[in-house]
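Practice problem: predict the structure.
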Amino acid sequence: MPDPRRGAMLRRSRAADTSQRVPASEAAVRERTTSASYASRFERVWGRHVASPPSPEGATVYAELRVLLGAPYRRYHTLEHIHDCLRRLDDVAPLLDDPDAVELGLWFHDAIYDMDSGTNEQRSAELFERLAEGADPAFRKRVRGLIMATRHQGGERNNDRRFIVDIDLAGFGAPWKEFMRNGALLREESPKKTDAQYHSGQIWFLGRLQRRRHFFATEYFRERYEAKARENLRRLLTDLASQGYAASTR
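Answer:
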């Protein structure tokens, strides 16, 4: 989203603050513990709905997702983004019709990610369907629809689809510095684009979000993040306009 130089400045600032730095050995233990916890979580939800055979075991599928989400070109669309989505999912689980379908939709929604491709969600959904051959067809169809909803084209009427798109976009309602850091990471995922190319597409997408009657599709997320998301959008678009960037024509 924003200028990557600003993101770098923020990261340097955080690195300079050693007062709250966690020792490397302790951080490594935490990371391994967290990774194992989420791996077990994935294996449980997979096992509840997908028969193996004919599908691979949950551990095998998780390993494949870990490789995809850990690709070196990824900066924002990583396992940490999935973990953040799952934490938000846990907060709203009682409001969902099928929490497990939403969870698997979140695990797979960024499985295939190429910043310059318009088929990421479709290919991610196809990957899920191929790996989840052992699931009930109606369940597979439901998860596919949830993954496709994260194209963020708006107009979702299904309760769970509305929640999955809000979970995915919840970062727009983060405090400004966190919002900017996320934006810098997103920018790093498109190294081949010039700033003008990147920001013109970014402004087009952000403008589309800004023109929505509501940024978020559900009351739950509107009450908690709508005002901040709109403030962040306005502030970022104003900043980009002041630098001379304009939306691309599509």
